Amino acid sequence: MNRNRRRQLANRISRVLMYLFAAIAILPLALVLIYVVIQGLPAFVHPEFFYNAERPEGIPGGGIANAFAGTLVMVAIASVLAIPIGIVSGVQLVEYGHGRVADGVRLACDVLVSIPSIVIGLFIYSLLVVAFHGQTGFFGALALAILMLPVVVRTTEAAIVLVPGALREAGLALGLPRWRVALQLILPAAVPGVVTGALLAVARAAGETAPLLLASLGNVFLTFNPGQRMSALPLIVYHDALTPYPDLVQTAWGAALVLVLLTLLVNVLSRLALRRQIRLAGRI
Amino acid sequence: MATAQATEVRAGAPARPSDGFRSLTTVISLFAPAVLILIVLVVIVTSLPAIKTFGAGFLTSTVWNPPKEQFGALPFIFGTVVTSFIALALALPIGIGVALFLAEQGLTGLRTTLGTGVELLAAIPSVVYGIWGLYILAPWLLLHVSQPLSEALGHIPFFAGPARQTNILIASVILSVMILPTLSSISREVIRAVPGGLREASVAMGATWWETVWKVILPAARTGIFGATILSLGRALGETMAVTMTIGNTPRIQASLLQPAYTLASVIANEFNEATGTLYPAALIELGLVLMLVTLVVNVLALLLVHRVSSEARI
After folding, report:
1. Chain B: closest CA distance from residue A86 (Å)
2. ipTM score of the complex?
3. Min Cα–Cα distance to chain A from B155, Å
4. For the segment B204-221, what is each residue's pLDDT rounded down to a tens digit?
5. Would residue B121 count as lying in a domain?
6. Which residues, including other chains, have CB under 8 Å from residue A264's CB and lie 6 or more apart?
7. Is B36 a domain residue?
């Protein structure tokens, strides 16, 4: 009897601990979101925050337009480079992915994902920045593309695997060539899942700072030209947060809030896409 | 052009296993491995001047004095390893608690909320954790944890004061938050992969929930959880921005958690753009090489472990 009571007590304590740990896990998310909103919102009060470029400390009217433009241009270029290659690679892994080569590609993607982003910055710097005597937005975009590629490959593969095999068999049985089955039958059925992967990769690229420090450096002037140095939202957060000037720190918090809002938006979108994928796969 | 070729091949032999489409997509899929190999090669080649100059002493020297061209990696290796392991120690119990919660049956609403929350934790950019850590968490920790600790336990080397606002402790706490999603989501998959029969047998024998978890589920999931832990370690080792903003950036080896330190990734982020001459940048790139090799080994190990578990579960 006594022993049983001890067992029940241990059980109850461990259950409580599990709930406690779960609560602790969610606490930082709440705290980060609350503080970023509290500290960042005052920056939004001035509309010029959104359409002016950065200004030095003490001069009012500074904004984040240069960072916005940089993030937009670099992430767009990186997406154009990484997403098509990633999707085709993902299709390949599902359609022909049984050999040793495909296993190598999978391993390479998993390893590429885990390479510290600052090392990718060093790579771009040593290979391109040195050769061309300076940082450009295009080099930053290349670094971001390298970060995005493995994410797109693996999520595309995962999304296509979800498509029922019967669809592929039906297509092949009707005499469709393999490439038409893969691109016109299987891939469309996996579009929401593929979109989820692409969105996650875009979010990852938009929030990345370390490689841009070395590859695109930053630029206090507004430019849409990827041949020049470019700023980015995370770069502004990093640089301005470490200055001793309250107005620049305020800009940093504002940029951080923009980043968080973008991340949340992309996350919600990718979740919706994923839900569609599951419904679509269920219908086939 | 290549698509046309694919059609021609197919027209001759329908459904032949090897066709132009296959060759084309295979070539494209080799992009990722090619980039990976190129990265490794370029980083090795560009750090060669430093490797030649400093030899193996680079890894064991504790002096980092760029103006005198003295470059030693040990303080950074120390900072990287210490912060990563403290972060793991903090995140491990919480991560497994979350994984158990998520793998539970019932409580669907709560579970979805927690799962979404932890996933969002992974989505927040590193630099946002950095600014939050620097301006919100660091002052709070200093006032409520670091200072009381150094006053009460200052005679223990680990808590030697005076406590500083940016230190090893806060960098580790932030890192632990950042690796929590990896840890808990992989552990959840591993725990779910434990055959239901084991759990049912244990419950049927009259074991409580805790006894089932502690004596049946966790031992069965041990390898996979170990893999998840190592994978998280890999993430922690390479994390740059949040650590750079909170660790205090001082290349020093000492025991106290309440003092600043420096990591491999942070010193590259901080000093690379100001590094002049040939040796200084090369030394920083060699630090990057060390970082890359360590994370490569750690991650391949973890991948093999996780892969083994998931292929066993499939049988």
Report:
1. 8
2. 0.94
3. 30
4. 999 999 999 999 999 999
5. yes
6. B120, B123
7. no
